[in-house]
Amino acid sequence: MTAVDERGMTKYFQELEPPEGVKVELLRGVIVMMASPDIVHNMIVADVQDQIPRQRWSRLQTQDVDILDEASEPVPDLVVLRRELVPASGRLLACQLVTMVVEVVSKSSVHQDYVTKRSIYAAGKIPLYLVLDPIMAQCVLLTKPTGQGEEADYLTQEIVKFGDRLPLEALGVDLDTSAFGTFTGVRPHRYP
């Protein structure tokens, strides 16, 4: 068996053909597969997307993001960037073009969304990382990315409960969270 470093996994990942309905991401050299999301998850993504003005912003779902200097190609639940910056084609979107990424927490993605992806998106200098958590009924807005690699993080964190409004000043949006659904019967976690 031949050892494959993190960069070697990128090539393997690009050739991978997952079964339909399976989301696949490369996170720091680790291939992560997840089943299709819950309806609550999809409705939250749709509600956020509907509130971001299409005239100024492109709102992309299932878009692979290329994180500079990382063996990571995450697939956020929603990627937001200025309309004029959208490339004409391609599978990977350069992290430098992205204004905001959104992840909706599921039972199986808690650690990834709050820890692993927080560091990856901060390493990519993505200005806004919004974690929407239907387990804890909260939004966590992370801003001011700093650092590199696994030590990267966001300097500011704002937590808003579902039902309250969340100002997204960089987008010129006051996000209404009152229609966001929650998961029932799921054990609470300790994050952020």
TrEMBL record:
User: InterPro entries this protein is in?
Assistant: Nuclease_put_TT1808, Restrct_endonuc-II-like, Uma2
> Putative restriction endonuclease domain spans which residues?
13-174
Q: Which domain of life does this protein belong to?
A: Bacteria
Record's Pfam families?
Uma2
Task: Provide the GO MF annotations for this entry.
Answer: endonuclease activity
* UniProt keyword list: Endonuclease, Hydrolase, Nuclease
Q: PANTHER family of this UniProt entry?
A: SLL1072 PROTEIN, SLR1083 PROTEIN
Protein name per UniProt: Uma2 family endonuclease
Q: What is the native source organism of this protein?
A: Streptomyces tendae
